[in-house]
Every structure is written in structure tokens, then in C-alpha cells.
Design a protein that fits this description.
Blueprint lengths: L4 H15 L4 H30 L11 H7 L1
Length: about 70
């Protein structure tokens, strides 16, 4: 049984969308790759910020109990 003209037309349209024109599939995949890259960059920046906060630059503002008792 030979395919009808509608089936051939449908296959041609799908092939044109995938391989033809400006390469819509490749542009969609490129946009997805850019999104993943920016997501990973954001995760790295959060890690760097967390390391900066955990450094020795922090000031302890908690009152010490021993000094408070000796002052009484």
C-alpha cells in the first residue's frame, strides 16, 4: 500500500520544520544550553558568596557569659 499525498505532505512539513529554515530545533537547543549555563553560573556565585560569609572576616557580637558574671 503506497502512502497517500496527505501522508507525504505531513512528512515533508515535519522534515522542513526540523531541518529547514533557520534551524528552529538548533536554535531551541542553543537557548536551552544558554539557560543551563547561566543556571550553573548562578549556583557557583552562591557558593562563592557562602564561602565569603564563612570567612575569618566575621565579627562575633555575642556577649560572653563569663565576662558578664565577673562584672557583677
Amino acid at each position: 500500500m503506497a502512502p497517500s499525498w496527505m501522508q507525504l505532505l505531513l512528512v515533508a512539513v515535519v522534515a522542513l520544520l526540523i531541518f529547514g529554515g533557520r534551524g528552529r530545533i538548533s536554535s531551541i537547543m542553543g537557548d536551552m544550553a544558554k539557560g543551563i549555563t547561566s543556571f550553573r553560573k548562578g549556583l557557583r556565585e552562591e557558593d562563592e558568596d557562602a564561602k565569603a560569609v564563612e570567612g575569618d572576616d566575621m565579627v562575633n557580637i555575642t556577649p560572653e557569659k563569663e565576662k558578664a558574671k565577673s562584672a557583677d
